[in-house]
Amino acid sequence: MTQSPASASPAASSPTGRGPIGTRHLLHQQPAIFEQGTAGRSGASLPPCDVPAVDPAACFGELSRAQPAGLPEVSEVDVTRHFTRLSRWNYAIDIGMYPLGSCTMKYNPKVNERVARMPGFAGLHPAQPLSTLQGALELMYRLEEVLREISGFARVTLQPAAGAHGELCGLMMMRAYHQSQGRHPKKVLIPDSAHGTNPASASLNQFETVAVKTGSDGLLHADAVRAAIAQHPGDIAGIMITNPSTLGLFEEQIAEITQAVHAAGGLVYMDGANFNALLGKVRPGDIGVDCMHFNLHKTFTTPHGGGGPGAGPVGVSARLVPFLPTPTVEKDGDSYRLDWHRPQSIGRMRSFFGNFGMMVRAYTYIREMGGAGLSQATEMAVLNAVYLRARIQDVYPVCSERPSMHEVVVTDKRLKKETGVQTLDVAKRLMDYGFHPPTVYFPLVVPGALMIEPTETESKETLDEFADALLSIAQEAAQNAELVKSAPHGTALRRLDETRAARSPRLRWLPASATPAQKG
Ligand SMILES: *Cc1c(COP(=O)(O)O)cnc(C)c1O
Known about the structure:
Blueprint: H1 56-60, H2 76-88, H3 110-116, H4 119-122, H5 134-151, E1 155-157, H6 163-180, E2 187-191, H7 197-204, E3 208-212, H8 222-231, E4 236-242, H9 254-263, E5 267-271, E6 291-293, E7 314-316, E8 328-332, E9 335-339, H10 356-392, E10 408-411, H11 413-419, H12 423-432, E11 439-440, E12 449-452, H13 460-479, H14 481-485, H15 498-503, H16 516-519
Helix pairs in contact: 3-10, 5-10, 6-7, 8-9, 10-13
Bound molecules: pyridoxal-5'-phosphate.
């Protein structure tokens, strides 16, 4: 009996012994680049060497290698196919919706890339004389200006390389401020709904964190903050508060909380990662916030994650200005200079100017949108989240009855009780429908959380497809729970052992001959 080609899996091994013939287009059959090619193969064709060969050991002494580096010996075709195949197994915002809550995975407009690649920006060297860097300094000066306008802060530093780095920078300024007042408070209040980077940044700064419980409505209450302050009299350095919170809710009592913390001598750090819900609506500087980071790679459309480095500018109120990192960019008449002479500065946070290419992209986006455009983006981001919520909440109950801002947190409560299918299964099954899963099991205060942030760049058609997928998965769970529990089915690799992947990741390729110790 002959098997049909569709069901036959090639049994013969390839001559290289790397698995069945004709399956290299499958992810699990794609050898590492080091396992491809053959000795002496090269992707470059250079003319014969017409200068005398040198002995590396004689030139470089002990810096020269004892063994060749073991680089892959492959042709250009090998390399192109290898990396193009890998890229096709990737998921990206340019392929589909990426509703990863808290991460604001919005579309990165191509005009940003075009401007960042202009030779006048891309070809600069950070050590050039300042007189030849005037355009770059002007862009940084203007970006600070627009971020100040958007947020209501006195000044903004562009140096930090990410949101978490901005938190570190902000807390360093807060500590320097307290020290300048002759105070050494040790406690930072952090609500239980906070992003993990908040307590991490606080302890990295030698502060002790005091957890404050959110109310049953999901909001942080001024009473709870006052009670926490009362337990640590004279020892409150400040509070770190995410607004909108990681539950996607606007912290309605922020003004009262800010007053209470200030009255206790503390400062208010606002985690601005969710600023995409506030553009043109709320200026944190106006409500008494002392310090806040922006995530240019979230709110201001610069690439996120594998797509490029981040940028986490930090805005500060007037009393923190003396402590800003050096150098600041200043304008004198028609020219721009760097100010290194800031005696109370916490010092440098980043080499050279920070991630300048990201500043170019963010500035381009802001100028393209304009003030009215940014407000409209926020309105659409919130509308999209509210629409999704309305479409799915009968099946996936929301974590709070309060109105959602730019993201909605729902739970697997009902699904789990009725079908045994849980959040992780839903996330995996969504991949079969062609969507990147949302953030799962975060925030920790919501059991079985699915945190969905559609962003303003998704159309109603895409939102409907996503909602339909979630509802369809719930139906599948009721009819055939196993189908959902064993998902994904349509991906190159099936369900992974997530614990092992997190606890003992293999991050480095080693030859088969490596010793167990080398393999770790
Ligand atoms: C993303 C995020 C951060 C950290 O920002 P990075 O740029 O990833 O370092 C902090 N807080 C919240 C609420 C976030 O969503």
